[in-house]
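It is worth pausing here to work through a concrete case rather than discussing structure prediction in the abstract. The textbook approach is simple: state the sequence, then state the predicted structure, then interpret. We follow exactly that order.
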Amino acid sequence: MPEAATHVASGKVREIYALDDDRLLLVASDRISTFDVVLPTEIPDKGRVLTGLSGFWFTLLREIVPNHMLAIREDGRSMECRRLEMLPIECVVRGYLAGSGWKDYRGSGEVCGHRLPTGLRESDRLPEPIFTPATKAQTGHDENITRERAAELVGEERLREAEDVSIRLYSAAVEHALARGIIIADTKFELGLDAGGALVLGDEALTPDSSRFWPADAYEPGRAQDSFDKQFVRDYCETTGWDKTPPGPELPDDVVAGTRAKYADAFERLTGIPFDRYLEHPAVVLA
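Step two, the predicted structure:
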């Protein structure tokens, strides 16, 4: 780490350093959390998958909205970024009925204020992608909020702009991913403002940590789907009797290996780049 870098924040996965007044360094660790608890066992190269995939998407989608990326460093897990004033909401887009959206729909027929057709099944594709903002939780789960509450936080005009950009980003990513055998059921974006007040995509983008990825060849509405993320970890933790409070359980070698393989598989399918090639030359995702 350069001597000039000053540590400014820690997240569940990332460490953030200030390089100067205009630039940050985001370092993605190999930590993994489940049920909002960071586990004691790391997943080798997970942070490199997150950084490499984000860099790939930032490059692919930059015509839709500018992003904060300046460079990916040779370690493959560190990204130099522009500083932004981040919006105080998560910009969540859902294209399929899953997770908390499915739970809400079963109870009310709505998802975050969006009235949906009757008779939908778990994992069904929605008629159109929907924008469902959430608050940013420092600890625990982000919480879904109404559009009205989101407008109070960022302003009605800015919210409309964020909604439009988020749905355009999601729709473009869905088309790219589906051609490569992956369904992006939902995702969350973090948007911020640059010094001129323009909207910029920040944080990470369309990774297994920020999105729900399903293998298209196994997709079957009416049930929960297999996924390219923490499935092995969640399933294992559910068998341990753990009460889902810190500290979390250690992970056995087979769960670690299976999870690493899932992350690497998602990277390779989406980018078309062998993961080993990325490890040797991280800038390959920026071409």
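Step three, interpretation. The CA atoms of residues 101 and 107 lie 10 Å apart. The radius of gyration is 19 Å.
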